[in-house]
Amino acid sequence: MAGLTAEYTPFETGLVDARTPLLPADEIRRIRGQVTCHGVAIYQDAVVFRIPADQQQRFAELLANPPVREGDAVVALYYDFNTPFGYTSTVIADRIEREYRARFDWRGFELFPDWRPLLQVDIGIVRERWKRNRLIPLKYDLPVADRRPMYRRTRNAMAALEFAKLMGQQRPLRDALFRAAWVDDRDIEDPSILKDIAIEVGVDGLAVEAAVVSKQFDALLDQYRQMAIEAGVFGAPSFVIGRQLVWARDPYELIVEALEREGVAKR
């Protein structure tokens, strides 16, 4: 990203809109942390920061001189809240981040986007499957409901998590959303419930609700889906490590093997 520049649009209010190419979430967080930012809008191919005019030069310097990040490999983790294997991936990803010089970028991949019907499965079959599948979270000491939670649309919950990424609060909201889905069976597609969940873990709930309702992250989520399809992703959770794709119910060893083939070192 070295050498990036922005297009600036000044306003009579003393604010400026700085339009940049699309940036990674961690780079957006870095910039927000070093300039006063009145708002951020993320589009399919760009990000717009609203900043005070007197900080335009500082913004330009930050954009032109990104920090050198050595060591940690970034692994794309395509997830959905509708699968218990996504739930257990929270433990697996956190463990690998402690053990290896790797960082997981959680990217929403809807198993049931709005154009795909939700599953309608005979209740008897659901119960039998759940007897087996609920053992998976329990294996990782994760609490889980006695009955399988409902299949839901999850795009709004993914948007809420994108907001938390920008605030540097991804992990607490991620864990709270999976817990809401798999322990409490809360409707994580409802913006007001997402607001409540965010508040419970110290994230700005009103801002989360506003981001969801305004569809602030729709373009980014669409981009994630396209990137996933191009990488060969067919389900969630999936891990893209270099040119390698890992999908498994218990993927720890496969991820470690893929990381080591990529030359990722232990911590």
CATH superfamily of the largest domain: Glutaredoxin
Q: Give me the strand/helix succession.
A: EEHEEHEHEHHHHHHHEEH
Q: Whole-number radius of gyration? A: 20 Å
- Sheet bearing the most strands, described? 4 strands, antiparallel
According to CATH, the fold-level topology of the largest domain is Glutaredoxin
**What does the overall shape look like?**
globular
Instruction: Detail the poorly predicted runs.
Output: none
End-to-end separation in angstroms reads 26 Å
The overall pLDDT average reads 89
Neighbour order of strands in the largest sheet: 1-2-4-3
CATH architecture of the largest domain: 3-Layer(aba) Sandwich
Number of DSSP helical runs: 11
* CATH class term of the largest domain: Alpha Beta
Total separate domains: 2
Work out the strand percent: 15-25%
Please provide the count of β strands: 8
| Share in helix | 40-55%
Q: Kindly name the structural category.
A: alpha+beta
Condensed summary:
This protein is an alpha+beta fold and 267 residues long.
Question: Can you walk through the features of this model?
Answer:
β3 and β4 form a beta hairpin. It is built from eleven helices and eight strands. The protein has two domains: 7-64, Alpha-Beta Plaits (2-Layer Sandwich), CATH 3.30.70; 73-252, Glutaredoxin (3-Layer(aba) Sandwich), CATH 3.40.30. The radius of gyration is 20 Å and the shape is globular. The strands form two sheets. A four-stranded antiparallel β-sheet has the order 1-2-4-3, with no helix packed on it. Strands 6-5-7-8 form a four-stranded mixed β-sheet. The longest helix is centred in the middle third of the chain and has 16 residues, at 84-99. The chain has 267 residues and is of the alpha+beta class. α6 (155-166) packs antiparallel against α7 (170-182) and α7 crosses α8 (191-200).
